[in-house]
Amino acid sequence: SFVRSTLENYQSCKATIHVIPFGSPPPIVCTTRRDDARPKSPLRILYVGSLGQRKGLSYCLDAVESLGKSVVLTLIGRPTTNNCEPLNRALDQHNWIETLPHSQILDQMRKHDVLLFPTLFDGFGLVITEALSQGLPVITTMNSGGPECIRNGVEGFIVPIRSSEAIAERLNQLANNRDQLSAMREACLRRAIVLSWSRYKERLIDVVNNMLSDS
Predict the structure, then answer these.
(1) How far, in Å, CA of 208 to CA of 42, rounded?
(2) Distance (Å, rounded) from C-alpha 115 to C-alpha 159?
(3) Whether residue 214 has pLDDT greater than 60
(4) Could you point out which of 28, 84, 98, 103 has its C-alpha 20 to 30 Å from the C-alpha of 77?
(5) pLDDT digits (tens, 9 = 90+) for 74-109
(6) What's the pLDDT score for residue 107?
(7) Residue 44 backbone dihedrals phi, psi, to 5 degrees
(8) Using alpha carbons only, how large is the chain's radius of gyration in Å?
C-alpha cells in the first residue's frame, strides 16, 4: 500500500494497482523457547537490515537508549557508511553481527522478543513476514509493507516514522506486559499461516487471470 500510494500521489501509473503482500515462511511449531517466567529480564530487541538512516536506525537507537537497562539490542547488518561516529559508538555498545546466513537470522529471531524495523521507506520488508513465522512480534512503520502483514496491537505495532518516542512507548509496553508479548507471539504464528507463499501465488494468479479476461 505504501508503494501504491507513492505511485498514485505522483501520478506515475494510470493502470489499476493491485496490492498482494509477499508470503511468509512456514511458522515454527511453538514459542516455548523464550523465558517468559522472568518478567523483570530485559526485553530482547532485534534489528535486521542495512545500518543506515533510510531504515530509521537513529530512531531505533534513541528509543533503546531512553529505556536503559530494561532492554537489550542486537543489530544484524552492514553499515552504509564507515564515517558515522554515532553509529560506530552504537555498534560498540550493542550486540552487533555484521552478517549471517538466512537460517541463522531466523534462529536469532527465535531468541529475541521483538523485531524493530522503523524504516522510513521500503517497498516491502520481507524481514516482517520472516519474523511472523518465528513468532516474533514486529514494531514497524506505515512505510514498510507492515500494514499488510500485521494488525496494530495484535502481531505488533505500527508507529509513525521518525518517532523514537513512539518506539520507546511500545517497547516499554511490551517490557512491562509479558502476557501481552506472549499473546502476540501466538498471533504472529497464526498470521504467518494466513500469509503463506501459496496464498500469495493464488492471489497473484487471480489478479493476472482477471486482467487477461478483461483485456
Answers:
(1) 48
(2) 13
(3) yes
(4) 28
(5) 999 999 988 889 999 999 999 999 999 999 999 999
(6) 97
(7) -95, 110
(8) 18
Inform me whether the pLDDT recorded for 33 exceeds 60.
Answer: no
Length of the chain: 215
At 27, which amino acid appears?
A: P
Which of 143, 173, 201, 185 shows the shortest CA–CA distance to 3?
Answer: 143
| Cell 494510470 -> residue | 14
Mapped onto helix, strand or coil, the DSSP state of residue 9 is: helix
Is the sign of the CA dihedral 65, 67, 69, 71 positive or negative? negative
d(CA 64, CA 207): 42
Strands (E), 144-193: 156-159
pLDDT in tens, 144-186: 989 999 999 999 999 999 999 999 999 999 999 999 999 999 9
C-alpha grid cell for residue 110? 527465535
Residue-wise over 87-118: b if at least 16 C-beta within 10 A, else e? Answer: beebeeebebeeeeeeeebbebbeebbbbbbb
Distances (CA, A) of 94 to 102, 130, 173: 21, 23, 21
